[in-house]
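Slide 14.
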Amino acid sequence: MMYATAICPFCVQAERLLRAKGVEQISKVRIDLEPERRREMMEKTGRRTVPQIYIGSTHVGGYDDLVALDRAGKLAPLLEGSST
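Slide 15: predicted structure.
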């Protein structure tokens, strides 16, 4: 699941990386279309910026966090263990 906006280049890059890793379906919460969901995102993550990415129930963080997880070799195992 990803909190995102339409004009966020980091959201686009995060989606590309996830798709390259074999993720077929990404549930997106568009906080630009649903402003009340921004508050939800901030309460859940403690962050204000998008994207905010969850793999299953694990909060990965933003795009930079996703890339770091991939480079550390920890993204694929997290994706394999996830039902989303």
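Speaker note: Helices lie at 9-20, 36-45, 63-71, 75-80.
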